[in-house]
Amino acid sequence: MPERDRAPVPEKAPLRPRNALSAVLLALACLLVPFGALASWAAHGLTDTGRYVRTMAPLAADPDVRLAVADAVGDGIMREAGHDLDTGSLRGAVGPFVHDAARSFTRTEAFRAAWDAANQAVHAAVLRALRDDEERADPVTVDLAPVVARVKRQLEDDHVSFAHRIPVTHTRVPVLPAGDVDRLRRGYHVLDTAAFWLPLSAAVLAVTGIAVAACRRRAVTALALGTALGGGLLVLAVAIGRRLTLADLPDALHRPAAGAVYDALTTTLRTVSWLLLALGLTVALASWLTGRCLAARRHEPPSAAPTTDPPPEPTRART
Question: Nearest to residue 98, comparing CAs of 167, 45, 47?
Fold first, then answer.
């Protein structure tokens, strides 16, 4: 048939709008994946008190964390004892003993129990303040009297002079000021909502984008590559967040302790980020290899039919 007499192919025209719509849906899904993972980690991973205490428990054996806690406890004891102990040589003599006792206390089993109890109290207080719907935000404080009492008891057991004069008062140590509580409360409600809707929206957009696409295998490959890219960007964001967090700390001596706490809190987020990266690359590679195999089979020449010997000619009878 001549070329001009061939009928036009009507199926090619609708493919461009379908591919464009699929590309938009898949791009939105890939964009929502890292934000959904971040919101889910912040809303669910950090708001479970039991999980938070279990995450922070191994830090009781970290040397940098123990040093930071010992310095904070020792300084707090000396501030409270400043009115009873004179500001002269007596205070200077007791100070080293107090700090040494605090450091020694951080290497005991009692410190591990106190560490877990303090983390549980701090987390419960912060979570209660974030979930409170009152308009007036109060500062979050924690009582350190039990820790001071344990250190004083150890000083008395070590027969340190003037240890009995260290007062054990119910001092409310501020954890979050009222302004930060109000700001974090609004962010918490946003994250709590986003943790549910962002992953669900990403899944719906991904499924719809694959269903609309003219070539679903290519759509799966694009979605997998976008997911891997989102996981890689999330890994980079965690690393940049760590550097910025430590850079804002005023005390350079306690930055290693803050880094250990940051690493412990973001362990789950880093694991999810690497899983997204690995899963996306694996699915993209599998989809690409599947397409290559199908293309190779499609262009493979058909096998020739087996040749058979022609039937023997009938013999004519001799006359």
Answer: 167
Top pLDDT among 117 and 146 is at: 117
Rounded to 10 degrees, the C-alpha dihedral 208/210/214/219 comes to: 140
Question: According to the model, what pLDDT value does residue 271 have?
Answer: 94
Instruction: Name every residue whose Cβ is closer than 8 Å to that of residue 89 and which is 6 or more positions away in sequence.
Output: none
Q: Is the pLDDT of residue 269 over 80?
A: yes
- What string of H, E and C letters represents the secondary structure of the chain? CCHHHCCCCHHHCCHHHHHHHHHHHHHHHHHHHHHHHHHHHHHHHCCCHHHHHHHHHHHHHCHHHHHHHHHHHHHHHHHHHCCCCCCCHHHHHHHHHHHHHHHHHCCCHHHHHHHHHHHHHHHHHHHHHHHCCCCCCCCEEEECHHHHHHHHHHHHHCCCCCHHHCCCCCCEEEEECHHHHHHHHHHHHHHHHHHHHHHHHHHHHHHHHHHHCCCHHHHHHHHHHHHHHHHHHHHHHHHHHHHHHHHCCCCHHHHHHHHHHHHHHCHHHHHHHHHHHHHHHHHHHHHHHHHHHHHHHHCCCCCCCCCCCCCCCCCCCCC
Q: What percent of the chain has pLDDT over 70?
A: 69
Q: Higher-confidence residue: 254 or 279?
A: 279
CB 226 within 8 A of CB 30: yes
Distance CA 288, CA 236 (A): 26
Enter the tokens of residue 185: 């409360």
Where does the pLDDT of residue 293 fall: very low under 50, low under 70, confident under 90, or very high at 90 and above?
confident
